[in-house]
TrEMBL record, chain A:
Annotated Pfam families: SBP_bac_8 (PF13416)
Swiss-Prot/TrEMBL keywords: Signal
Protein name from the UniProt record: Carbohydrate ABC transporter substrate-binding protein (CUT1 family)
InterPro entries: SBP (IPR006059)
Domain of life of the organism encoding this protein: Bacteria
Secretion signal, residue range per the UniProt entry: 1-22
TrEMBL record, chain B:
Single GO BP term: transmembrane transport
Organism: Kribbella voronezhensis
Keywords: Cell membrane, Membrane, Transmembrane, Transmembrane helix, Transport
PANTHER family: BLL4140 PROTEIN, DIACETYLCHITOBIOSE UPTAKE SYSTEM PERMEASE PROTEIN DASB
Protein name: Carbohydrate ABC transporter membrane protein 1 (CUT1 family)
Keyword presence, Cell membrane: yes
Pfam families: BPD_transp_1
A cellular-component GO term for this protein: plasma membrane
Compartments, as annotated in UniProt: Cell membrane
InterPro entries: MetI-like, MetI-like_sf, UgpAE/MalFG_permease
């Protein structure tokens, strides 16, 4: 009887251990401590396939030559925009088992980790690696929180881009080479497309794609300073100018495809490519997608969203130094690679984004990226809420909910109220 | 004394691991969740939290988004239960009346249950495409091909709460009607043939036979079906998430809202939603457990 009891407890203990060890499994080398295991650098990303994976592989090959003492351990969790990865990461961080370094959107979204005390200040590394000289000042300003910087950006994406089908525009008598000067002019063009029989003049898709349309309208109508201030609570979100902008957003939405809540951004882009739509608003990862889909350069055109020329609405993927992470020296070597000219080139030529460094050579990059790089140097840089540069995860969740409510039942007053409440929340 | 342990000891030992594991991983965690829901832990910061009583619940029930998700859940549950029962009972009746190749039909009706909700959600996401007319895809396209154009509709993307949530319930109905059919078919088969014969001898019409002889005997099955469907509907998450994605105000139910809240590290609020959901499930399950216990003790 006794033997049976202790055996039962032994079995239970084993089951319990299994259950516990199953909880935090993203860190493969947690219990190791051997000489070779201690040199592992676990890099946590949500780049699991496509152009993103190719970009990560590019970084890894640079890492393997630059940091020979360390071994790269891939800890990627698949899922669009990190929806699954962020939850896994939150668990690991809460359990005090952070990876060596993890991916996070630079800006307000990173603010959550900073407030939670989960990432270390890397300002010293900026001086050590010379990044304070290599990155443009406007980007550094956007990265700095209370005088400190907490991450190294690997790339820069632009959000305020309109992708258009020149053949469709020409049929409606529109000039495809030049963006309409204002949102009002754009609405007039959309009306012409509709009159010419284009079903969905402005193609868009669910969730953040609609949020991006709203953002470019807000940016165009409010101007860069008031737009940036909006997310910081410095611009009155209940103001009449915001109401006017949202009313124009409602108008724009009325020209879009009816299945906008049921499709993803590549489908919306597909409508443009197939000539069923005139425009779509989407970030510049579209360039990589068009390349992957073998759409020829001549079949599409792009410009900054109407009324936002001269503004570069940015988002950046960046890497952090988690507090209490394993082997911080290895992580620092990874950050050095991420910030280096070679690393940024290896990463960005494959991912379709542009390097954050201003000393990159444009001729190394495809056509779209070259134009974006020129803009990055000369334009005013404003953050994007949809991609975490201007908003925290919580704010973005509330805004996305309000946007989807608006898509089903457009009511400007409800949207504006929800927007104002979301910005005030954390 | 020693002899008594011999009788109940082995049984208790066999059950002990289950009891302990359940006690910790189910009831312990429920208690922990409830405790979290009473705190002000609204972020991932490792600072000590303090208890704020039922503040989170008060906030939840004062929030449009949460009330909307509860209403969505109510409509979804009604549409799902009614739809599944109608189809399940209908199919069971048809099979019960006798059909050649019954086994094949049984498999066909039961098969959707083998598909996971997340997989069927992805497919139904395509089928429920709201485009109509020339652009119609998915079910709308099928209706157009069958010249049933009047059936084309925007599904969950426009229209009232009822049409929205009924569209979401549609895949779940498709998935579980076969299961309900199996339940009822087993029920019909469990009724002794003598009862039917006696009723027919007494001159009962076919309708009266079902109305007064067969259906009354199926009430325990109907009750189990109701409970099973009810609690499944309350917990429905994967299907909705797969069809509409996160942050869809129109189709958000508490389970999806809880996930979104958890993603923003608002632990206390997420725990509060979880406890509300648990309470709603309990309202359904507890009467059923009480009923079963009473039935068993009567036997």
């Amino acid at each position: 009887m006794r033997g049976g009891l202790s055996k039962t407890f032994a079995v239970m203990g084993a089951v319990g251990l299994l259950a516990v060890s199953a909880c935090g499994n993203s860190n493969d080398n947690s219990g190791g401590g051997g000489s070779s295991a201690s040199k592992d650098v676990t890099v946590f990303t949500w780049w699991a396939d496509g152009g993103e994976k190719a970009g990560l592989d590019g970084l890894v090959s640079t890492f393997n030559t630059e940091c020979k003492d360390y071994k790269f351990v891939n800890s990627a969790v698949a899922g669009g925009a990190g929806s699954n990865a962020k939850q896994v990461l939150a668990n690991d961080l809460a359990a005090k088992k952070p990876p060596s370094t993890f991916q996070a959107h630079a800006g307000a979204e990173l603010g959550d980790y900073i407030k939670n005390g989960q990432v270390d200040d890397v300002s010293d590394l900026y001086k050590e690696f010379g990044l304070d000289q290599a990155f443009p000042k406007s980007l550094l300003d956007n990265l700095t929180v209370d005088g400190k910087i907490y991450s190294v950006p690997a790339n820069v994406h632009r959000a305020n881009v309109v992708w258009a089908n020149p053949t469709v525009l020409k049929k409606a008598g529109l000039d495809a080479t030049k963006a309409p000067a204002t949102v009002d002019a754009w609405i007039a063009d959309l009306e012409k497309l509709k009159a010419a029989g284009v079903k969905a003049p402005l193609a868009t898709s669910k969730g953040f794609a609609q949020e991006m349309v709203m953002e470019v309208v807000l940016l165009a109508e409010l101007g860069p300073d008031k737009f940036t201030g909006l997310w910081k609570g410095e611009t009155d979100a209940n103001g009449a100018d915001v109401t006017a902008a949202l009313t124009k957003y409602q108008k724009l939405l009325s020209y879009s495809n009816v299945d906008r809540d049921a499709i993803d951004w590549p489908d919306a882009l597909g409508y443009v490519n197939k000539g069923q739509a005139g425009y779509t608003v989407m970030g510049d990862w579209v360039a990589a997608q068009q390349l992957a889909d073998k759409v020829p350069d001549s079949a599409y055109t792009y410009w900054p969203a109407p009324g936002t020329a001269g503004n570069f609405q940015f988002l950046a993927d960046s890497f952090t130094l988690p507090t209490g992470g394993q082997d911080p020296d290895g992580a620092k070597c990874w950050l050095k690679v991420v910030g280096s000219a070679d690393g940024q080139k290896a990463f960005n030529t494959k991912k379709g984004s542009i390097p954050a460094r201003s000393d990159a050579v444009p001729t190394d990059y495809p056509k779209y990226q070259q134009s974006a790089m020129a803009d990055w140097k000369s334009n005013k840089i404003v953050p994007s809420c949809a991609h975490g540069a201007a908003c925290s995860l919580g704010q973005n969740d509330s805004i996305l909910s309000a946007i989807s409510q608006f898509s089903g039942k457009p009511d400007v007053a409800t949207l504006q109220k929800a927007l104002a409440t979301a910005i005030k929340s954390s | 004394m020693h002899g008594r342990i011999r009788t109940w000891g082995p049984g208790a030992l066999v059950l002990l691991p289950t009891v302990l594991l359940l006690g910790y991983f189910v009831y312990g965690l429920i208690a922990w969740t409830f405790n979290t829901s009473l705190t002000d832990k609204h972020n991932a910061r490792p600072v000590p939290t303090k208890h704020v009583g039922f503040e989170n619940y008060v906030n939840l029930f004062g929030e449009d988004r949460f009330l909307n998700s509860l209403k969505n859940l109510g409509v979804l549950t009604v549409a799902f239960i009614v739809g599944t029962l109608i189809f399940g009972v209908l199919w069971a009746l048809l099979l019960e009346k006798g059909v050649t190749g019954e086994g094949v039909f049984r498999s066909i009706f039961l098969f959707p249950m083998a598909v996971s909700m997340i997989a069927s959600g992805v497919v139904w996401g395509w089928l429920l495409n709201p485009s109509q007319g020339d652009d119609a895809r998915g079910l709308n396209r099928l209706f157009a091909l069958l010249h049933l154009n009047f059936l084309e509709n925007p599904w969950w993307t426009a229209g009232s709460r009822w049409t929205t949530m009924a569209s979401i319930a549609l895949p779940a109905v498709w998935q579980l009607s076969g299961y309900i059919m199996a339940l009822f078919l087993a029920g019909f088969r469990g009724i002794p043939p003598e009862l039917r014969e006696a009723a027919r001898v007494d001159g009962a019409s076919e309708f009266k036979l079902y109305r007064y002889v067969l259906f009354p005997q199926l009430s325990p099955i109907a009750l189990s079906a109701l409970i099973i469907l009810g609690h499944m509907s309350l917990k429905l998450f994967d299907l909705i998430y797969a069809i509409t994605g996160p942050n869809q105000f129109r189709t958000e139910v508490p389970s999806v809202y809880m996930w979104n809240t958890l993603l923003r590290s608002d632990m206390a609020k997420a725990a509060g939603i979880a406890i509300v959901l648990l309470a709603v499930v309990a309202v359904l399950v507890i009467p059923y457990v009480a009923y079963t216990v009473r039935q068993e003790s009567e036997e």
